[in-house]
Amino acid sequence: MNILIKDVQLEGNPSDILYNVYIKGKYIDKILPIKAVDSDNYPFDKVIDGRRKVAIPGLVNAHTHAAMTLFRGIGDDMPLMPWLEQKIWPSEARMTDSDVYWGTKLACLEMIKSGTTLFYDMYQRPEATAQAVDEMGLRGVLSGVCFDHFKPELAERSKKNIPLLEKKIRAYSDRISFSIGPHAIYTVSGELLQWIDRYSRENNLLIHLHLAETEQEVSDSLRNFGLTPVRYLHKLGILSPRLLIAHGIYVDEEEIMLLADHGVKVAHNPASNMKLGSGIRFPFAEMKKAGITVGIGTDGCSSSNNLDMVEAMKLAALLGKGWRKNPEVLTASEMLYAATESGASIAGLNTGRIAEGCLADLSLIDIHSPAFTPNFNFLSNLVYAANGSAVDTVICDGKILMENRKVPGEDEILEEAQASAFSIVSAGLII
Fold first, then answer.
1. Could you count the other beta carbons within 10 Å of the beta carbon of residue 319?
2. Which residues pair with 213 in a beta bridge?
3. Please, which residues have CB within 8 angstroms of residue 323's CB and are 6 or more apart in sequence?
4. Structural domain containing residue 279
5. Residue 36: its pLDDT value, please?
6. What is the per-residue pLDDT across 300-348, written as a single tens digit (0 to 9) for each?
7. In contact, 212 and 229? CB cutoff 8 Å
8. For residues 329 and 327, what is the distance between their CA atoms, to the nearest angstrom?
9. How many structural domains is the chain composed of?
């Protein structure tokens, strides 16, 4: 399908200049001032009215656990490890493929409704996740989460499962790619981490890992390995451009340089870090200065409670300003870059920008609303005043996923996800 978006503003351009964006297949083919478009030269199947709207790149959620939408509101106001051990892991043990499928569909619906077109996921039963993402039309970098709990027999099971999962995930749409998801250094042995690194290097795969999330993790790492988490991975030889670490709060200056020197990517999760009391001093500005690619994530809905990347941009900016007591750091434009182009670059995808030749992943923001009135500064309003409800239209891979805030099939998704969530509760979950 060829799509013409008419009379739309583009983020970063003067508000009095309107453009026509011509999408041919899955790519942005032409971006032209409105008077320059000749329908004979640019035939289209669908026209979208862009008046009173601003086009932005599709947002990128750099770290989440999609199917945990089913656990929204469960185990709130608890510290990380008791929350995992008493609430989350026992709940996840009861999940079926159907639960993960509908939980992921709910996540995709929520992400579409708030302008996200690409997300990095780490969860069990990734085939069910892939099926849901495939059907919903989003891009997903999907990790099969693995644990061995320092038991050799479980490590061997992971080594056998990972190639099988990769083959199964690759059978889905080319919008979906496979990555490896070792959970954390306290649940995955060094031997398995080294095997995963070798496998990822041989098969050019991303590794998605929680790291340096809490002070307890750091103290445990020092006690168990004699090194802080980043230094431990460096000793193992795991640091590389193929590694994406989630959280990365507790790193010092030397560790930041280690991450930078090895091309490691980082996903900042401000809502989850604050809600779980994990910490607030994420060194965003320091990492950026060192040349580290930093994306923004929401984490799962049971630790952040929503998947709204517009809200996540605001939280990332305010958190960084607050703990430094410096209002000049982490600007609105930096946050949008982190939540779009920077996040997309982690997977090496040609998206995250509205430019000719890029994949057609974009959202239209409705500026005819209180949050954008007056509209002296669109980016400021987007990051500091708005939320995901400002998103009117979402296009991913050249296909319209939402128009006029309507997503096909959303009523069924809400009903089925609700039923799945309550079936887990009825199976013995204590809220």
1. 20
2. none
3. 280, 281
4. 59-345
5. 58
6. 998 999 999 999 999 999 999 999 999 999 999 999 999 999 999 999 9
7. yes
8. 6
9. 2
Judge whether 272 and 304 are in contact, CB under 8 Å: yes
Asked if residue 116 lies in contact with residue 307, where contact means CB atoms within 8 angstroms, the answer is yes
Looking at the predicted structure, is the pLDDT value of residue 176 above 90?
yes
Partnered with residue 393 across adjacent β-strands are: 364
- Confidence class for position 292, pLDDT limits 50, 70, 90: very high
Please give the helix or strand (H or E) that residue 215 lies within, else none: helix 215-225
In terms of domains, do 65 and 170 share one?
yes
Cis, peptide link before residue 14, omega less than 30° from 0: no
C-alpha 62/C-alpha 56 separation (Å) is: 17
User: Residues 46, 125: one domain?
Assistant: no
269 DSSP assignment: -
Among 427, 263, 389, 372, CA closest to 9: 372
CB 336 within 8 A of CB 381: no
Closest CA to 368 of 386, 353, 380: 386
Place of tokens 């770290």: 63
pLDDT band at residue 213 using 50, 70 and 90 as cut-offs: very high
Question: Are both 92 and 235 inside the same structural domain?
Answer: yes
Residue 384 lies inside a defined structural domain of this protein? yes
Q: How many residues does the chain have?
A: 431
| Nearest-10 crossing angle of helices 97-113, 126-136 | 40
In the chain the first and final C-alpha atoms are separated, in Å, by 46
Cα of 160 vs its chain's centroid, Å: 27
Supply the DSSP string of 31-99, one letter for each residue.
EEEGGG--TTTS--SEEEE-TTEEEEEPEEEEEE-GGGGGGTTSS-S--HHHIIIIIIHHHHTT--HHH
Q: Are residues 40 and 69 both part of a single domain?
A: no
Q: Give Cα 411 distance to the centre of its chain.
A: 24
How many Cβ atoms are within 10 Å of 421's Cβ, its own excluded? 22
- Residue 410 covered by a domain: no
